[in-house]
Automatic annotation (TrEMBL):
<keyword id="KW-0486">Methionine biosynthesis</keyword>
<dbReference type="GO" id="GO:0046523">
    <property type="term" value="F:S-methyl-5-thioribose-1-phosphate isomerase activity"/>
</dbReference>
<feature type="binding site">
    <location>
        <begin position="247"/>
        <end position="248"/>
    </location>
    <ligand>
        <name>substrate</name>
    </ligand>
</feature>
<feature type="binding site">
    <location>
        <position position="86"/>
    </location>
    <ligand>
        <name>substrate</name>
    </ligand>
</feature>
<keyword id="KW-0028">Amino-acid biosynthesis</keyword>
<protein>
    <recommendedName>
        <fullName>Methylthioribose-1-phosphate isomerase</fullName>
        <ecNumber>5.3.1.23</ecNumber>
    </recommendedName>
</protein>
<dbReference type="InterPro" id="IPR005251">
    <property type="entry name" value="IF-M1Pi"/>
</dbReference>
<comment type="pathway">
    <text>Amino-acid biosynthesis; L-methionine biosynthesis via salvage pathway; L-methionine from S-methyl-5-thio-alpha-D-ribose 1-phosphate: step 1/6.</text>
</comment>
<dbReference type="InterPro" id="IPR042529">
    <property type="entry name" value="IF_2B-like_C"/>
</dbReference>
<dbReference type="Pfam" id="PF01008">
    <property type="entry name" value="IF-2B"/>
</dbReference>
<comment type="function">
    <text>Catalyzes the interconversion of methylthioribose-1-phosphate (MTR-1-P) into methylthioribulose-1-phosphate (MTRu-1-P).</text>
</comment>
<feature type="site" description="Transition state stabilizer">
    <location>
        <position position="156"/>
    </location>
</feature>
<dbReference type="InterPro" id="IPR027363">
    <property type="entry name" value="M1Pi_N"/>
</dbReference>
<dbReference type="InterPro" id="IPR011559">
    <property type="entry name" value="Initiation_fac_2B_a/b/d"/>
</dbReference>
<feature type="binding site">
    <location>
        <begin position="44"/>
        <end position="46"/>
    </location>
    <ligand>
        <name>substrate</name>
    </ligand>
</feature>
<dbReference type="InterPro" id="IPR000649">
    <property type="entry name" value="IF-2B-related"/>
</dbReference>
<keyword id="KW-0413">Isomerase</keyword>
């Protein structure tokens, strides 16, 4: 099941807020709807946000062809609306930067809008294809760290629903079980407040025949204490050059628990998730989401109106708590900085 797909000149996407009970695909030709879908987490997960924003820009470009003289200024506005959707996942900015390079070059050469649209669609398609290839490599490399009989804890959703193909953390699990025949069990943290673990990870793993148990986030420590978990694999939204990693809120506490219980803690992510411009995790912007996500469960109020809440959507796991980072360029072990910088040199060459 592809969570987003470019068909004709439209974007078809799975509304992830309705899972696991309803599989509803929507189709749009409006970049504003793509921006709204990213903001509201109908489309979510770092790589998928990047891919969808790239296609969103294509929709904006197609709309802009009717504004001949205003075409490039219009693209500038489309770009900034898409950029303002979610601040933490760097894949959004990475993908829009790639798109911007194309349309700025076209603008410089006074390329006709229709021609620019074709080039943009080609680039967005390439971004999607590259993500698929990176997923495959991460899955294969990640599987080499998984042994037959492993019981793996994961957090949030870093699977096919969050990417162009296999997923990252879940990709490794799929590869190990489906390609290599290793028997694996997964614990999926429910992942408060929006329940990506319970709703999405459990949904896709069980559809693929991976035995999965959902636990509330506050049960993970007890499971580790009881010796029920022997590996943790999570995804990432942004990795600093020193290896500090932003991922869904609750990831950091798992890494601390993993260290205490002597459990390997792996991060799986494509290099499009590495922010080579920042040195350490404290520079990563953390999205603060609406209080209503904590105060209400659907229409039911679960927190007194007068109580204040905080709702950071991500946290930062310090590099010192990470056993390895699995990228499509290889498995990186600490210290990370030099290895990450050498990946940068390789990519930019
Ligand atoms: O708020 P979300 O659902 O977009 O958060 C997603 C995560 O935290 C994932 O772990 C991360 O994006 C990696 S997806 C391969």
């Amino acid at each position: 099941m592809k969570p987003v797909e470019w068909i004709g000149n439209a974007l078809r996407y799975l509304d992830q807020t309705l899972l696991p009970t309803q599989e509803v695909f929507r189709e749009t030709t409006d970049f504003r709807e793509v921006a709204e879908a990213i903001k509201s987490l109908r489309i979510r997960g770092a790589p998928l946000i990047g891919i969808s924003a790239a296609y969103g820009l294509c929709l904006g470009a197609l709309e802009g062809t009717t504004r001949q003289n205003d075409f490039y200024p219009f693209l500038e506005r489309v770009d900034s609306i898409l950029r303002s959707t979610r601040p933490t996942a760097v894949n959004l900015f990475w993908a829009l930067d790639r798109m911007k390079k194309i349309w700025q070059e076209a603008q410089k050469n006074a390329t006709l809008p229709e021609e620019t649209c074709s080039r943009l669609i080609e680039e967005a398609t390439t971004i999607e294809r590259e993500d698929e290839a990176m997923n495959r490599k991460i899955a294969e490399l990640g599987a080499s760290l998984i042994q037959d009989g492993d019981v793996i804890l994961t957090h949030c959703n870093a699977g096919a629903l969050a990417c162009g193909a296999w997923g990252t953390a879940l990709g490794a699990i799929y590869w190990a079980q489906l390609k290599e025949g290793k028997k694996i069990q997964v614990y999926a943290d429910e992942t408060r407040p929006l329940l990506q673990g319970a709703r999405l990870t459990a949904y896709e793993l069980t559809r693929n025949g991976i035995p999965t148990r959902v636990i509330c986030d506050n049960m993970a420590a007890f499971m580790m204490q009881q010796g029920k978990i022997n590996k943790i694999i999570v995804g990432a939204d942004r990795i600093a050059t020193n290896g500090d990693t932003a991922n869904k809120i609750g990831t950091y506490s798992l890494a601390v628990l993993a260290r205490y219980h002597n459990i390997p803690f792996y991060v799986a992510a494509p290099t499009s998730t590495i922010d080579f411009e920042i040195v350490e995790g404290s520079q990563i912007p953390i999205e603060e989401r609406n209080a209503a996500e904590i105060k209400y469960w659907k229409e039911h109020q679960i927190v007194p109106e007068k109580a204040e809440v905080e709702n950071p959507a991500f946290d930062i796991t310090p590099n010192t708590l990470i056993t390895a980072i699995i990228t499509e360029q290889g498995i990186l072990y600490p210290p990370f900085q030099e290895k990450i910088l050498s990946i940068r040199r390789k990519i930019e060459r």
